[in-house]
Amino acid sequence: MASFPPRQLYYKGQVQAASSGKTFQTINPATATPLADVQIASNSDIDAAITAAEHAFPIWSQTPAIVRARILQRAANLLREKNDEIARVETLDSGKAFTETSTVDVVTGADVLEYYANYIGGGGLNGDTIQLREGAWVYTKKTPLGVCAGIGAWNYPIQIALWKSAACLAAGNTMVYKPSEFTPLHGLTLAEIYTEAGLPAGVFNVVNGGGEVGAYLTTHPTIAKISFTGQVSTGMKVAGSAAGNMKYVTMELGGKSPLIICPDADLENAVDGAMMANFYSTGQVCTNGTRVFVPRSIKSSFEKRLLEKIPFVRAGPLFDEQTNFGPLSSRPHYEKVLEYIRCGVESDRATLLCGGLEKPAVPQELQAGYWVKPTVFTDCTDDMRIVKEEIFGPVMSVLYYDTIEEAVKRANATELGLAAGVFTRDLNQAHRIIDQLQAGITWINAWGESPAEMAVGGWKKSGLGVENGHRGIEAWLQNKSTLVDMSGCVATAFAKL
Ligand code: NDP
Predict the structure, then answer these.
(1) For the segment 427-468, what is each residue's pLDDT rounded down to a tens digit?
(2) Mean pLDDT for the chain?
(3) Ligand 1 atom nearest to CA at 235
(4) Gap from CA of 152 to ligand 1 centroid (Å)
């Protein structure tokens, strides 16, 4: 028996039944039991959602920025008021501990909404004026793109929906959003909050379903832009399809990010950073620092301190305030992560420092869930599969190095470039290393914080474009340049004819 009523679609400002007659189930990963039946959008349902967004576009794009700002700010306030209620559902749907969802997931989404409300309310969408000569100048205008699509991953469900929709709607676009089929429950909640905040009908719409719903959006002629978060392999398909249809894209994809600990680093801080970068959200964070480069000279002290701290990663009932480590988010993902751990032991032959294939000790009622232990492999080498491929689970690979130059070179030897970080007490060294690391999101003596002001996006195969910060909204706008000449003559070869 599912615990929530069936979930439908949302367009034209209201909940709508899907016409496909098909549903899928979303599962509570802590217990492996069904949470809700979710109706799958047919192509004609997606068309209807897109038409609703198309009709809403002239109204919303011509609404003065200051009025749009007020509505978005109201939505941010509502999200904060309903924080615990939304976080509760996110915990059930995604398997993240409530200590996380109630302090991070909704909050960091609402922050971005508020940031862009302030940004557009304060004139952030103004263009430039460029004086050319007496009586002639150029002015530029930032205009929205039209109907855009957001396609989300399952690891930060409502945060991803907000990071996409906040900038999209602030810029004056309308959106059709498809959540991941593994964590879809937030979609309708967010749509209802936007409506309650005063967003006109059709500005934010939700279609549920699997990859085929996302794929349909990427080829639809009305959609001007796709903002996608997911795996590199899916991102390549989405970008290819969007390019063939000349759509704008933003791609937030996977990573295999390096974290370099320098010999002079504060060991306590560095070990905490490595744990944060691998075990937060059970390792299901795109920016995870899964390749931890440690100087060979501090191998034993690093490993000793890491092992002493592992018991602070506590699996257990997700609403218990002591729990800070949930299960993996779905059965297929659980099987994938176990396969990588098996590969680390059997094929890569790395040294298993802790964790492994056994489930952590959790109460009887949770034992069917998708639980794994925080796992650390040491003595890893760059050619191991666990070191090269994104696992997206709580699996740390520790790699030892002799010189900083070597660590930087090895850190960059990957096709991915999402995040990177360095731990050192020497600030000159920190900036020198960060400067050489090929990644779009970097940290010095910290890991993971991603405030609304900080533009984030990957280099190389980890993505295209950025979300958040001033730069993030530019990806939802197009430029119009207008040259004005008041002299009355046209400056061309025909001017004297
Ligand atoms: P997927 O690529 O499997 O799926 C992402 C979304 O795309 C889902 O909604 C999925 O639908 C949909 N989709 C699947 N096939 C297609 C298609 N052909 N066309 C259009 N849409 C499609 O990623 P995951 O959900 O497994 O997410 C995990 C990945 O996301 C990791 O690699 C992680 O690093 C990355 N990520 C990146 C972030 C960043 O900011 N760089 C942030 C968060 C995660 P469905 O699953 O419903 O079938």
Answers:
(1) 999 999 999 999 999 999 999 999 999 999 999 999 999 999
(2) 97
(3) 2
(4) 6
Q: Which atom of ligand 1 is nearest to the CA of 254?
A: 34
- Look at ligand 1, atom 35, and give the residue with the nearest C-alpha: 230
Work out the number of other CB atoms within 10 angstroms of the CB of residue 402. Answer: 10
Residue 152 — very low, low, confident or very high, per pLDDT cuts 50/70/90?
very high
C-alpha–C-alpha distance, residues 374 and 394, integer Å = 5
DSSP assignments along 125-184, one per residue? T---EEEEETTEEEEEEEEE-SEEEEE--SSSHHHHHHHHHHHHHHTT-EEEEE--TTS-
Task: Please report, for residues 138, 429, 455, the alpha-carbon distance to residue 466 in angstroms, rounded to integers and kept in the order given.
Answer: 28, 27, 6
Residue 231 Cβ < 6 Å to ligand 1:
yes
List the end-to-end C-alpha distance of the chain, in Å, as a whole number: 82
Residue 231 Cα, ligand 1 centroid: separation in angstroms?
A: 5
Strand 248-252 and strand 223-229: pairing? parallel
**Which tens digits make up the pLDDT trace of 106-141?**
999 999 999 999 999 999 999 999 999 999 999 999
Q: Return the residue matching tokens 């970097």.
A: 442
* Residue to mutate (ligand 1; options 39, 231, 390; most atoms within 8 A of CB): 231
